[in-house]
Amino acid sequence: MTEGQAPKTMPEATGSPGPVPEGSFVRAARAIDRWYRPALPPERLAALRILVGAFSTVYLAIRTPQLFGLATLGGFRPTGLATLLSGPLPDAVVVAQPLVALALGVAFTLGLAYRVTGPAFALALVWVLTYRNSFGMIFHTENLTVAHVLVLGCSRAADVWSLDARRAARRGRPAPAPSPAHGWPVRLLALVTVAAYLLAGLAKLRLSGLTWAASDLLRNYIAYDNLRKLLLADWYSPLGAWLVGHAWIFPPLAFASLLIELLAPLALVGPRVARVWSWLAWSFHAGVLAIMAIFFPYPLLGLAFAPLFEVEKLPLFRRLRRAR
To answer: Which residue from 58, 72, 73 is spatially nearest to 125, judged by alpha carbons?
Structure first.
């Protein structure tokens, strides 16, 4: 710098820097987060707690005599959590298990001390049914019910329409507003339902490929199942036995069942698509009952598909909505 020349200075800041543009990955992540954690009303989650909890408790009550009978049943082959055992449990423990689970199920459904009874009932249900499945046939029809109870038990499903909420209201606590805390469990329940059907379809493809939909596999299975039940003097389907004589019917039925399962993710697109898919899936289970005499109570009662809809608006909950 020469004499008399003004020193050079740094230009002054003209303001704070503008917002950093988001990348496509960040935008996608935020969109997924908004979809997975919507701000849903707490009543929807509470309605699902009541429906699923009531079903699970009644289901356990119906099976309690059978669960008691495990105390004298041989052939213990542990599966799942029961592999932690070195042998069958003492008779008194076997009898106590379903009773404890039933008590927790009632508390779960009513929303009583839910922070404790919610996860406790979920774990009790898993244990009791796993122990039952260690004595013979594994009942895969229970898996979706148990998965839904696990999700509900770890959520804030008792913030409204519960004994806990009634006690909180008496203490002056304001009613909770719609929030992501009530939205993500509902979304997860829907994802679990969709995943269960999708995995069933993928299992068919893995075991038999497209042969499932282009052969007599389904026909042979229905014939075997009904004949076995007839020989054992069990309840079988006369309709299924009659249909076996019409071979052309079964490839379309097999293809339709496979398609319903593989297209399950479409139910997440929106309520209209969910309604169509749920009706088709329900019809599939109704068909299984008609031609194989196999009763899947959870989906046939509509509970498997309940997370896809605004169940809090059912007439069943009209009185609770008025009380709110």
So the answer is: 58
Cα–Cα distance, 253 to 236 (Å, whole number): 19
Q: Could you report the per-residue pLDDT of 148-205, keeping only the tens digit for each? A: 999 999 999 999 999 999 999 999 888 899 999 999 999 999 999 999 999 999 999 9
Interval 7-46: pLDDT, tens: 544 455 555 555 545 678 888 888 888 989 999 999 999 9
Structure letter (DSSP) for residue 172: T
The burial of 55, by beta-carbon neighbours within 10 Å (0-12 exposed, 13-18 middle, 19 or more buried), is given as buried
Give pTM, 2 decimals.
0.89
Rg of the chain's alpha carbons, rounded to an integer?
27
Contacts of 58 (CB under 8 A, 6+ apart): none
What does the domain layout of the chain look like in residue ranges? 32-323
Token pair belonging to 223? 């014939």
The C-alpha atoms of residue 176 and residue 162 are separated, in whole angstroms, by 13
Long-range CB contacts (within 8 A, 24+) of 33-39: 35/187, 36/184, 36/187, 37/180, 37/183, 37/184, 37/187, 38/180, 38/183, 38/187, 39/178, 39/179, 39/180, 39/182, 39/183
Contact 236, 222 (CB under 8 A): no
